[in-house]
Amino acid sequence: MATYLLKRLAGTAPVLLLISLLVFLLIHAAPGDPTLMLLGEETNAADVATARERWGLDRPLYIQYLKFVASTVTGEFGKSFKYAEPVSQVIKARLPATIELAIFSIIIAILLAIPLGVWAGSRPNSWLDNVGTTCGLFGISMPSFWLGIMLILLLAGVLNLLPTSGRSTYGIAGPEITGFYLLDSLLQKNWPAVWDALTHICLPALALGVNMLGILMRVTRSSVLEVMNEDYVVTARAKGLAEKNIVWRHVTTNALIPVITVVGLELGTLLSGSIIVETVFAWPGSGSLLITALNSRDYPLVTGIVLTYTAAFVIINLIIDGLYGIIDPRIRY
Amino acid sequence: MESLTLESATESTPGRVARRLPRLHVKAFTGGLIVLTFIAVGVLGPALAPHNPNKQELTAMTKAPQGVGSSHVLGTDNLGRDVFSRVIYGARVSLLVAFAVVFVSGLIGISLGAISGYFGGKTDFIIQKLVEVVWAFPPLLLGITIMAFLGQGLFNLILALVVQRWIPYCRVVRGQTLTLRTREFVVASQCLGARNAQIILRHIIPNVIQTSLVIGTFAMASAIIAEASLSFLGVGVPPEIPTWGTMLADARIYISTAWWLPLFPGLCIFVTVLGINLLGDGLRDILDPRLKRTGAGM
Predict the structure, then answer these.
(1) Do B297 and A30 make contact, defined as CB atoms within 8 angstroms?
(2) Do B136 and A294 touch (CB under 8 A)?
(3) Cβ-Cβ contacts under 8 Å for B178 (sequence gap 6 or more)
(4) Which of residues 158-177 of B touch A (CB under 8 A)?
(5) DSSP state of B66
(6) Would you call A307 helix, strand, or coil by DSSP?
(7) In this complex, which of B138, B151, B256 lies closest to A157 when CB atoms are compared?
(8) Digits of tens for pLDDT over chain B (298 positions)?
(9) What is the ipTM of this complex?
(10) Which terminus of chain B faces fewer neighbouring Cβ atoms within 10 Å, N or C?
(11) What's this model's pTM, rounded to 2 decimal places?
């Protein structure tokens, strides 16, 4: 399996190179001059020329691309036009917010979907099953950004329970250690900041996790239904084991194998979803950064973010492929 | 005794069939009904809409829903445009985009999948490399990047959504074709001297169309959400075309003052997608007897 994964990893490099070229060309061919967008329409020609020279926009496209590839290899991705900093640093500053949000969404989705799926699958056609399947169907059909808006309207607007934007209340968080507010606050034992971070992350995480919740619930239910008919479950029942023990100890542990792989596969969708949910909740992550970068035609930053997301997506898929073999020893590469 | 059993069995047969039929198709039926209703609303849009969706009434700005029978059933937006009329026209655009995306991506995906699986070798390698590159992008991200390049527009939006949506068809059809090409009826056609294009069109594609139908249904749901997402982010259709996504984007800053602005277009997206997913689930249950028996397809 190690040879297979190494081969796959080696195969990933040309794919990423091709993607970088594709994104680079797409962004550079897009209408709109970044110099005019960042300096303003009324800037004089001399300033525009200086800016173009500084950002290397006056050079031929292939030189610009080669420079970009060279800076990508060093892990810098070039310099952002808007922030005048290396792209890698701009992304690094915003990435923890996105990862923190994604992790929370997955936790919410798993905590709600698995019990619901197991209950539904272990009692097919019962009222619990009907509730579960309806939840699953609603989950996969719900546009996450609309749910976000509705949550803001209801929980924040009408009931005034939770904050609607940002990661924390100004001045409450301590100094940054990891960039993950919740973890930082926990490390510093700053309990008001922990609570504050939790209240801020609740709504966006729920909005982002709702699709995964629906999918996981449906997969768990199907998987439990299949496992319920296996011989070892019949044997456990014949031995007189309590139904609760059979479901949670024998069925769930085996039914979770496909669920784990689906979690991995859905991470890519979650990454994309974060772009739109971050915009709704003004969450200062890399997704909302992408929209800002696109609007200002910040070429290096857009290419950097797209490549980071794509690389993450490719690597996650690779890890999932590796996990198949570990989780299910029957799978051999 | 024997005649009694036979009699009761014959008596109960129509009843049993009647009981089984609606249960079997209830999801497909409900989903189909929802989808058909929205299609009808989309097609009959101009006849149903009480106002021009872009007409601004500056004396009736941000009016709350006034109920059935009033001039603005679902209220008006910040520019005094009728929300009900905009929602109706929104159905038109959203469904048009979704149908176009599903049709074009299905056409490309099924063709490439069948070619890839049937010919194998270098053709298969090139097509699968293309699949690998396009599939490496997280969904939506590629759409956003392409739209940034092409600019807002209905045609551009369809193109941006098609770019990644042909992949599921291609992968599944390729897999099925790999099995089909070794089957007797294909080998027999080859022996009788049929051309490859003929075999693909007459024998391969009719056998993969059922699965593609189910993929198409779910692809339509995802296309509606993707269209709304891109329009919401401001990279979809131009703002003057009313779609559910652009309506939600416009409504964002009025969430606290005008609840009806984000509620209705979002609800339409949700109900349509729910209907399509129900239809897809139902079709899958009907077409795959194994899932029907276990109920695992839920």
Answers:
(1) no
(2) no
(3) B117, B120
(4) none
(5) -
(6) helix
(7) B256
(8) 344 444 444 444 555 555 555 555 788 888 899 999 999 988 887 888 788 888 887 777 777 787 777 778 788 888 888 888 899 988 988 899 999 999 999 999 999 999 998 888 899 889 988 888 888 787 788 888 888 778 888 888 999 999 888 998 998 899 888 888 888 888 898 898 888 888 888 888 888 888 888 888 888 998 999 999 998 888 888 878 888 988 988 888 888 788 888 899 999 999 999 999 988 888 887 876 555 444 444 4
(9) 0.81
(10) N
(11) 0.82
